[in-house]
């Protein structure tokens, strides 16, 4: 069962762009760490250069987890195109993807909250209603859906095994 | 597993080989082997019917219940 070519293409392009963005981010952080100066007109998001560098490193760490999730998704789609369904790899990959999506979303929100608290002395809880349900909760739901899909695949694997051993 | 498949005994009685039976009942040798070795989870009535017809026997000749000793 081949996945749609459009899906594969979108994931591949997204993965390449994410990697490129990550490399640029690392390059900027390294540049700043080694005393580089971005220019007087640059306003650091977290007040000082040091604060912004620290938060930049934290966000890059969280970002790398997201890249890993997309990488797993990419290899999962490639695995589907090999024809076998409900394999142990697919079940564990779906679960891991869901867990990583949730982890990245929570860590990202936590990093924003803590940085706001520490660097801006501001406590705020933002309920984003722009997208109807809020992108935070929607992404959490998507992560949970992946985990649920993994459970469905595990169930399907059992049914398939039983069917294969029905003579 | 409490259900034991006595296919080997019936085949020997009829001087028939597994491969021959597999061909007659339109089953792959691999699937017949799964049945013979007790790895099968279930058997279709159509398969049981085909085996009984080929070997001129009753389902009870092939399937036997042996309770598990605990």
List the helices and strands and how they pair.
The complex is a heterodimer of chains A (167) and B (70).
Chain A: H1 5-33, H2 49-80, H3 88-119, H4 135-164
Helix pairs in contact in A: 1-2, 2-3, 3-4
Chain B: E1 3-5, H1 7-13, H2 18-24, H3 29-36, H4 45-55, H5 59-62, E2 63-65
Antiparallel strand pairs in B: 1-2
Helix pairs in contact in B: 2-3
Considering residues with a beta carbon less than 8 A from a beta carbon on another chain, report the largest interface and each chain's count: A-B, 5 and 12 residues
Radius of gyration of chain A: 20 Å
Order of helices and strands of chain B: EHHHHHE
Indicate the proportion of strand residues of chain B: 5-15%
Strand count of chain B: 2
CA-based shape of chain B: globular
Helix-residue proportion of chain A: over 70%
Mean pLDDT of chain B: 92
Number of helices of chain A: 4
Mean pLDDT of chain A: 86
Helices of chain B, by number, come to 5
Oligomer: heterodimer
Sheet with the most strands of chain A?
Answer: none
- Low-pLDDT stretches of chain A are none
Question: What's this model, at a glance?
Answer:
The complex is a heterodimer of chains A (167) and B (70). With 167 residues, chain A is mainly alpha-helical.
What do you see in this structure?
The complex is a heterodimer of chains A (167) and B (70). Chain A is mostly helical. In chain A, 74% of the residues lie in helices and 0% in strands. In chain A, helix 1 (5-33) packs antiparallel against helix 2 (49-80), helix 2 (49-80) packs antiparallel against helix 3 and helix 3 (88-119) packs antiparallel against helix 4 (135-164). The longest helix of chain A is centred in the middle third of the chain and has 32 residues, at 49-80. Chain A starts with a helix and ends with a helix. Chain B has 70 residues and is mostly helical. Chain B has a two-stranded antiparallel sheet with strand order 1-2. In chain B, helix 2 (18-24) packs across helix 3 (29-36). The longest helix of chain B has 11 residues, at 45-55. The chains are: A mainly alpha (167), B mainly alpha (70). Chain A binds chain B through residues 161-162, 165-167, and chain B through 27, 31-32, 34-35, 39-44, 47.
